[in-house]
Inverse folding.
């Protein structure tokens, strides 16, 4: 599964990436997880199965959702509490839920 | 307290969301980002040229000859000084992308339009002459840098708007099937490109008949000056910081949203300082991009590094202790989402108070320190916002210890502002953890996405 994360500069979400990767490894889930900045999403969305965006840029949701619909992948905002506490387990679970829907 | 949340949620948030999602502002911000790597590389050479070591200049001259400095600064001329050219491309590219038209063509046309709006003349003072003469056939580098930035921004948006209108009205040359896509793409750009160039050309012909003589003069007079006053004043800066903090209090990326408007202003005042610094003159501006990134936002928007340190050493509750450990790593590099969303500060009226107060107080202290000459002004060196404190302050001030000291003083002030609020919040968390009912007045966790 390919999970793309996005925030303003792709920096704070990259914190979450490492936590999610760890959680995926522990569960034996094969996942490619990476974070990019808001302006680079268009370049990366082709490779993604799901796009999750940081709550601080949730104003991007309408336009990215449209982009996601074109590519046929789910797009949503990461829960703020999970985001703030870098809860890799919960965010990974949510990504899996979105994909399997 | 929930009243404040209501206002934030229902009044500020929708407006902020709309502004933040505004196509042109987003393209402006994303397009300007294209100039950043270049400027940072240029800064590296700038720092090397002005290392504050006694005898350094003589040492370099001894090895590389008298002209060592101007040779070392070649890359500065090809990075800082073409900022507007790069921005003209980047902004048009990002805007075209948002309209779903060919971004590369739109970028190239925008660069041509920007150059078309610029008279190819430079002033030249011949030896022995009293008055400078205008020499034709040269692209004026001064207008390719920060001085041309506002024109580049306007032309990029204007030309891309025309470009996409013409394409969307389907006034294009279509190639029959079987022609390679790259070839037919270049034909699609022909007619919109012609419209853009023709309109800018006519505009230039008209402007040349007026006393302004060029678009650069008009924009400088009507846009650059008022914006410079707004961005260069203490009040304007306080308002900008207030807005950034209010937006972050709603959980929106304030720096990124306000930066769409203030970014170009702070960028051009940064570059004005860089030019003065390079020439060894007095620095004209206090409020540059680095003023905010480096001296105010130590630890991220809201200057939360002091808060993280308080958590690390003085937290009683498990939750705050853990958060402190999680947030210190990114905090040193001025990334603070774990704090804003994890503590949380977002939608938490108690913590919003110091979160707004601390940076605003620091704007005032930093302004006083710099305007009285106690601390060196930011030298126009593009220190990235992720630079850890102390090193960041030292570099941003142009290799002056006073910059690092100011960061430490600001940090101490910030700690003093955050600490009482942190104690209240920590006590509340501790009470929650030990099972005692919490103070109903402190409505904290009332936020969900």
């Amino acid at each position: 599964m390919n999970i793309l994360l996005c925030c303003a500069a792709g920096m704070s979400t990259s914190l979450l990436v490492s936590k999610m990767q760890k959680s995926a490894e522990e569960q034996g889930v094969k996942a490619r997880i990476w974070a990019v900045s808001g302006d680079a999403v268009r370049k990366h969305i082709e490779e993604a199965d799901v796009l999750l965006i940081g709550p601080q840029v949730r104003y991007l949701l309408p336009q990215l959702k449209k982009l996601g619909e074109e590519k046929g992948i789910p797009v949503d905002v990461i829960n703020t509490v999970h985001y703030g506490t870098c809860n890799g387990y919960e965010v990974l679970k949510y990504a899996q839920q979105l994909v399997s829907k | 307290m929930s009243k404040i949340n209501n206002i934030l949620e229902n009044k500020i948030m929708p407006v902020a969301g709309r502004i933040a999602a505004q196509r042109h502002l987003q393209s402006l911000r994303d397009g300007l980002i294209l100039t950043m790597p270049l400027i940072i590389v240029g800064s590296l050479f700038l720092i090397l040229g002005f290392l504050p070591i006694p005898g350094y200049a003589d040492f370099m001259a001894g090895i590389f000859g008298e002209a060592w400095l101007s040779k070392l600064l070649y890359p500065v001329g090809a990075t800082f000084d073409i900022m507007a050219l790069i921005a003209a491309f980047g902004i048009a590219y990002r805007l075209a992308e948002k309209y779903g038209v060919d971004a590369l063509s739109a970028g190239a046309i925008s660069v041509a339009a920007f150059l078309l709006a610029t008279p190819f003349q430079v002033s030249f003072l011949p030896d022995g002459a009293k008055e400078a003469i205008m020499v034709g056939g040269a692209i004026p580098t001064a207008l390719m840098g920060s001085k041309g930035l506002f024109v580049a921004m306007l032309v990029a948006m204007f030309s891309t708007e025309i470009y996409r209108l013409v394409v969307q009205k389907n006034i294009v040359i279509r190639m029959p099937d079987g022609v390679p896509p790259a070839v037919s793409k270049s034909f699609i750009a022909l007619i919109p490109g012609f419209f853009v160039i023709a309109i800018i050309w006519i505009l230039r012909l008209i402007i040349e008949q007026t006393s302004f003589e060029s678009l650069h003069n008009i924009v400088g007079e009507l846009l650059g000056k008022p914006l410079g006053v707004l961005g260069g004043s203490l009040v304007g800066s306080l308002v900008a910081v207030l807005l950034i903090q209010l937006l972050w209090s709603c959980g929106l990326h304030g720096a990124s949203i306000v930066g769409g408007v203030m970014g170009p202003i702070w960028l051009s005042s940064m570059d004005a300082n860089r030019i003065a610094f390079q020439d060894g003159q007095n620095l004209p501006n206090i409020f540059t991009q680095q003023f905010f990134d480096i001296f105010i936002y130590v630890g991220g928007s809201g200057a939360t590094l002091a808060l993280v340190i308080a958590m690390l050493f003085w937290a009683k509750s498990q939750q705050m202790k853990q958060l402190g450990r999680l947030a210190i790593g990114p905090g040193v590099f001025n990334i603070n989402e774990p704090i804003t969303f994890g503590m949380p500060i977002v939608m938490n009226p108690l913590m919003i108070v110091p979160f707004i107060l601390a940076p605003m107080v620091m704007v005032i202290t930093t302004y006083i320190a710099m305007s009285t000459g106690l601390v060196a002004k930011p030298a126009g060196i593009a220190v990235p916002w992720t630079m850890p404190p102390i090193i960041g302050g030292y570099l941003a001030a142009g290799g002056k210890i006073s910059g690092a000291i100011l960061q430490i003083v600001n940090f101490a002030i910030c700690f003093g502002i955050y600490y009482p609020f942190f104690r209240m919040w920590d006590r509340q968390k501790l009470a929650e953890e030990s099972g005692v009912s919490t103070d109903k007045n402190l409505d904290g966790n009332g936020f969900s996405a």
About this structure: Chain B touches chain A through 35 residues (CB under 8 Å).
